[in-house]
User: Fold Allantoate amidohydrolase from Nocardioides jishulii.
Amino acid sequence: MTFEGMWKELEPLGRAAHGGYFRQPFTSVDAELRDWFRGAARQREMTVEEDAFGNLVAWWGGVATAEVPGLLTGSHLDSVLDGGAYDGPLGVVSGFAAVDLLAERGVTPSRPVGVAAFAEEEGSRFGVACLGSRLATGAWSWEEARELRDRDGVWLGDAMATVLSSPGPGRSGARRESWVARVATFVELHVEQGRDLVERGASVGLGSGIWPHGRYRFDFTGEANHAGSTRMEDRHDPMLTYAMTALAANKQARLGGHRATFGRLEVSPNGTNAVPSRVTAWLDARAASSAGLDDLVATVRAQAEQRAGRDGTSLTVTAESTSAAVAFDAALVDVLGEGRGWPVIPTAAGHDAGVLAQAGVPTAMLFVRNPTGVSHSPDEHAETEDCLAGVEALADVLARLLA
Assistant:
């Protein structure tokens, strides 16, 4: 089946009437996505492995072993809430399409080639980005992960059990030695989340590295009271402390060339006519360096604490998920890009490729041009012509590695 045919099959899964995607992990939609993945693998007579954390790998040319480690490509199928079609799935569909193209060229793989679909990459349900790859590589332990709950209070293990036959580390293949250690090289293709390639006039680019980033929970507490009878000077309103904090984060990020986003908010008691007693807000912070990220978060926290002192409120900050800076294997990037003229660009978005790179797997990334730069939105898009150029680039990269 062609790239376009696979995309047409996948496109309606998890799509809301208004066009956005809700492909959260370990749900009925996730089960449909897994069925699609297994079907695509069957069409190519590829062998599918599923680990205890929900990660899927389809192998072409035999299953990778310790003696003959494989090449791996792929990405993820889950989305953010009300997300776009391309972030993640483009890399999975392109992986299968690249296998097809290699077969059409008459390539007989000298080692197994795998297409991966990592679980819970976005962290949209359980709050930890790249959770599947973190668990597979041992960057997170099951003992840590099993304590995670979603917004409805569902435990991770219970959610996994709805789509996996045996979730958790008791299943064979749960530890890193099951398949991550059988990967010689990982190349992830992804739609660009920005406009760098547009400005360069290039359809495809190579990744140089990933900015460090983190997710931080800010718990502001105050005193619930009546919206009408409580004088302004008598209030201990955590919403005011949060509001100043959001503005401070925006200012500090702009001053330093960083990224800071408060995109999720919970308010208690969440009544129109009541001063809230608690506001919980999640900060997504990113910077070009680890020092820049630390300074950004520390400055925002200090300003929030100062404001809390004036408002008579209190603040607790918890780092829920952090990722260090990643520099992709420079020698590998040079080899893959030799003679291609592809620009080499950094990304401020997190990826499973970063987790595998930190686990010691030689890793590279390919980016496909995004005409608007919009991502994590229903408006996310890539032209079919550029997607096909990405498939060809990925096939060329895999062929070069096989050779």
